[in-house]
Amino acid sequence: MLPRRLPRLHAALAATVLSALVSLAPASASAEGKIAVVDVQQAVMQTEDGIRAQGTLKKLFDKRQKELDAKQAELQKAREDIERQARVLSREALARRMEDWQRRMVELQTSFVDYNKELQKKQGDLTGPILRKMMGIITRVAKKKGYELILDRSATPYARPDLDLTEQVVQMYNSGGDGGGDAPPEGGGDKPSGGGDEKK
User: Fold this and answer.
1) 25, 90 in Cβ contact below 8 A?
2) Is the distance from CB of 2 to CB of 115 less than 8 angstroms?
3) What is the structure's pLDDT at 39?
4) Which InterPro entries does this chain map to (predicted)?
């Protein structure tokens, strides 16, 4: 059967792109040593685009899972039929039935591999543009706030909560903040409403 969890984003890709941010901060940041973390997987999946992508992937996953379950049930029934008739079938007939069953089993295994490849490709098609846009936002935050290093949260054993920019970059993404405007304040917080809210 297909795996019960959708495949994760390629962590190596995210880590590679994030590591490139080391040289993006202004020179003055080296003295301050400002470091932050972003959970790239979580950030991508929490965006509005990411949520829609997950819905599309789940529909495809469920469809393929149903197809595999049906084929597996047919094979199980065929195996039981062969076992029941084993004593009355001739040796040649039994061999033909078993050969046909084994062929169908190989086809099922091939379908399993093909479906997983299809899911991975679809995930890349759907999440690739989201990931690239997210990396652009992270880059802009790094430049504006003078971060010397931004790490993938999933690759760090520990990071103080106030160093986590995940919620901020998700808010920026959902508000279309991939170009222009100010980066959100450090330490998270709700997205400001369009009005006369008191500034801190």
Assistant:
1) no
2) yes
3) 96
4) Chaperone_Skp (IPR005632), Skp_dom_sf (IPR024930)
Q: DSSP of 40-67, one letter per residue? A: HHHHHHHSHHHHHHHHHHHHHHHHHHHH
Cα 96 to its chain centre, rounded Å, is 44
pLDDT at 115 over 50: yes
Q: Where are the alpha helices (DSSP H) in the chain?
A: 11-19, 29-32, 40-46, 48-85, 91-145, 166-174
Indicate whether 5 pLDDT > 90. no
- pLDDT, one tens digit per residue, over 98-109 is 999 999 999 999
Of 26, 47, 16, which Cα lies nearest the Cα of 145? 26
- φ, ψ dihedrals at 199, nearest 5°: -90, 140
Residue ranges per domain, the chain? 11-174
Which residues, other chains included, contact 155 with Cβ-Cβ below 8 Å and sequence gap of 6+?
Answer: 11, 15
Question: Residue 158 has which token pair?
Answer: 């520990």
**Nearest one of 46, 52, 54, 18 to 173, comparing CA atoms:** 46
Q: Which residue has the tokens 């003295």?
A: 31
Q: Largest Cα–Cα distance in the chain?
A: 88
Mean pLDDT of 167-184: 72
What's the pLDDT tens digit per position in 50-108? 999 999 999 999 999 999 999 999 999 999 999 999 888 898 999 999 999 999 999 99
Half-sphere exposure in the Cβ direction for 21 (13 Å, CA): 29
